[in-house]
Each structure stands twice: as structure tokens, then as C-alpha cells.
Specification:
The chain is α+β, with helices and mostly antiparallel strands. It has a domain at 81-155. The chain is 37% helix and 15% strand. The protein is built from eight helices and ten strands. It has helices at 3-13, 20-28, 40-52, 62-75, 83-93, 100-108, 120-130, 139-152, and strands spanning 31-32, 37-38, 111-112, 117-118, 186-188, 197-199, 208-216, 222-230, 237-239, 248-250. A hairpin with a 4-residue loop joins β1 (31-32) and β2 (37-38). The longest helix has 14 residues, at 62-75.
Length: 251
């Protein structure tokens, strides 16, 4: 069984939060400390688990989850999953309206507020999910989506195939698809979603833990008390081990 899916199921069954701290703990598990790189096999497992369970996540857990899936797709364009298509499917399943508020939530995932620019990987995947569903959107929601893309996004153009020649030498392998935005510089860290912070592994992001102790009253009857003991971390967060707290990594 997918270990990440098992952790999500267990968290759900315990009725514990599946928010941003929980998602960041999962993201921290794909970092291979020995190689100082992200484990590709673990990343695939996490992406599949997140994509299958997006509906279980709390609202604040969705942004880092979707950001990680989009970053994985950018490096692995053959991956067929699309988190935005999944959100449309869930919306349809629950008979929720495809209204203005829903589209607003989707667009928030493709706009990087820290850099005030479009996340082209996420925007490409969202465009693919929106295209077959435009007619299902309410009029004001459809207008919002089309206006946003008309203003902020230029669709990628497919690369032209090389001209054939009988005397030509074997062609070089084709370059990476133009659909994928390639960056030669920094990008948002997929483990901490650009915050530079991850949940503390010692306290699980809680900032401390409850420690049980026993007291006795005047007739020796035991009284059990839980005492909160603070953790050494800063309120449940520590510097991200993937980007060393910078919030960005090199592609």
C-alpha cells in the first residue's frame, strides 16, 4: 500500500487536521538526506496519494499539495494526473455549483502572490481542466476564468517538427515539450511551498506535547493530569531541510 495514502487515511480516521502542517510533514518525507535531493520514487507515491485524496484535505492544506503536484508534473510531463481535474470531479460528485467562488479558489492556486506572477506549470494544468468544463461554469464564473487567462496567460505553442531529409543524419532527441515552462534559476521549494518552514518532527508541528502526571488527593485517590510541555522549536515550525529556509530551490 502507498505509505502516504496510509498516513492520510490514518489522520482522517483519527479525526485530526489534514491542513498545511500535515501536508508539509508529508512533503518533508520525500527528501533524501543522504543524496541531498528529492527521492523521485517517493515523490511519485506522494503525488498519487495527494491527487487521490484532495477532497480530504483542509482548505489550508490544498495550496502546498497542489503546488507539489504541479511541480512534479513540470519535471515529469508524462504524469497524467491533474489536481484541478480532480477538484472538478469532486465538485460534480457532491453536486456543488460551478460558481464564481469555486473558480476564484482555482485561480488562487495558479497565482504566486510572493512573486506577483503566474505559476505557468499550475496555469497550464488548470487550463486543461477548465477547457472541457467551461460550459458547466456559471456565467460570471466563466467570465472570471476567461478574463484572467486573457490578461495573464499566453498558451504554449507546440514545437514544430524537424524537416525530413533523406540525407539527414539521425536527429537529436526532441527538446522538452514547450508546454512545460523551464526555468534556469530558482523556483518555489516543493517541500515547504515557499514558506521556508516545515513542521517540527519532534512535536509534529504542535509546538509541544502533553505530558501525563499523577497527583494524589488527601485520601490517596489518584488524579491524572495532562501538562503541556513546550517544544524546543519555534511554535511547531523549523527551517525547511530542503531549501535551508530560503523558500526556493534550483531547478
Amino acid at each position: 500500500m502507498n505509505t502516504f495514502a496510509h498516513q492520510i487515511d490514518a489522520q482522517w480516521e483519527r479525526e485530526e487536521p489534514l491542513g498545511v502542517d500535515f501536508v508539509r510533514r508529508l512533503l518533508g518525507q520525500v527528501w533524501d538526506a543522504d543524496r541531498e535531493a528529492i527521492d523521485s520514487a517517493a515523490s511519485r507515491g506522494l503525488v498519487e496519494a495527494l491527487d487521490d485524496n484532495l477532497w480530504l484535505l483542509d482548505p489550508d492544506g490544498l495550496p502546498p499539495a497542489i503546488s507539489f503536484i504541479c511541480a512534479y508534473w513540470a519535471d515529469n510531463p508524462t504524469y497524467r494526473g491533474n489536481p484541478f481535474t480532480t477538484l472538478f470531479e469532486y465538485r460534480d460528485f457532491w453536486d456543488d455549483p460551478f460558481d464564481y467562488a469555486f473558480v476564484e479558489e482555482l485561480l488562487a492556486h495558479v497565482w504566486d502572490p510572493t512573486r506577483r506572477e503566474l505559476n505557468r506549470d499550475a496555469a497550464t494544468l488548470l487550463a486543461r481542466a477548465l477547457e472541457p468544463n467551461l460550459d458547466r461554469l456559471e456565467p460570471d464564473a466563466r467570465a472570471l476564468a476567461t478574463d484572467f487567462y486573457a490578461t495573464h496567460w499566453t498558451p504554449p505553442t507546440p514545437a514544430e517538427p524537424p524537416a525530413r531529409s533523406i540525407s539527414a543524419t539521425p536527429a537529436e532527441p526532441p527538446a522538452r515539450s514547450a508546454i512545460v515552462a523551464v526555468s534556469t534559476g530558482e523556483r518555489q521549494c516543493p517541500a515547504c511551498a515557499g514558506s521556508g518552514q516545515t513542521a517540527c518532527g519532534s512535536c509534529g508541528g504542535m509546538g509541544g506535547r502533553y505530558q501525563s502526571r499523577i497527583e494524589y488527593d488527601y485520601d490517596s485517590t489518584p488524579i491524572y493530569r495532562d501538562e503541556w510541555v513546550g517544544c524546543f522549536c519555534d511554535g511547531g515550525s523549523v527551517a525547511c531541510g530542503v531549501c535551508n529556509g530560503s523558500g526556493t530551490v534550483f531547478r
